[in-house]
């Protein structure tokens, strides 16, 4: 059980027990197509498999963690406090790309992190170090980009920010050792997964009641059509004999239920009936194709826990 390195919106640490309850008795490879902070992956420590995310800088970060952990730690150790003065030896020590004054080190780091989206030269290792630095020093640990892809979260207020995270980096590097890392759309998993594997999908979503109008729903640009595509991919994986577990918004309850998945509601304060009544408090679902009799026994742990 390893801690995630990054704080990420939609992290699933609070849902892990409910997700593990749906796990099959055994599986071959583990795949996580919407990786984000990878709360499930790091907790599970799978021996091999694939991870994926469309965020290119996030994926570069995990590649550097896997392949160059000590260099990454060394670079992070060389960084200064976010409130300190900009480094005069580096670009953007006085103003940003738009000519706006840069008053402290944080905003210089943020401007350097945006080299890639603004078409400037960048270094993979430095970009990864900057991602972790900003994640640990920005406001609320948020990750948000403007329409050009520039990271634009302001400085946070921390009395003693810890951005080096050497233990977490070394542990994550070890867990990622035999993992293939992809930067594609989630559909890559149709090529990557084989019969007997396990796929955990955690797409972008905002928990909400299924009475909300479906087409109004879109999180991080992941809209209705993407949700429909995801259901089709889940169905195709099911046909291939792949185990699928998915967390999603309550809005998606019927789509998965109608398609023959086992769907249960999390975070509801009362039981749900199937004809759509009494569903107002639904906010999150877990859907799976793993029948209750195929699930591992309650309380059964992975080998790593013994
Ligand atoms: C809810 S977050 C995953 C959170 C993760 N389970 C955790 O514990 O931190 C969803 C992720 O999906 C990624 N994403 C968005 N659209 C995608 C797509 N079409 N294919 C793959 N990943 C996508 C986002 O960049 C984001 O990191």
Automatic annotation (TrEMBL):
Which major enzyme category is it?
transferase
Taxonomically, the superkingdom here is Archaea
Q: Provide a GO biological process annotation.
A: methylation
Q: Name one Pfam family in it.
A: MethyltransfD12
NCBIfam families the record matches: dam
Which family, according to the similarity comment? Belongs to the N(4)/N(6)-methyltransferase family.
Q: What is this protein called?
A: site-specific DNA-methyltransferase (adenine-specific)
